[in-house]
Amino acid sequence: MLDFPYGGLVGLIILFLDIYAIIKVAQSSASAGMKALWIVIILFLPILGLILWWLFGPK
Prior knowledge:
elongated
């Protein structure tokens, strides 16, 4: 198995970015259902959800 010495740091950065995305979704003007859907996507797919939110999420 590959030993990636910065794995913990990368995980922490992804966690902070996910929290930022969830806060931005909660503050958006989208409907409550869309906010809930985006938050679930970000929580269950941390990296992919973050990318999808950045590309297609509520502004």
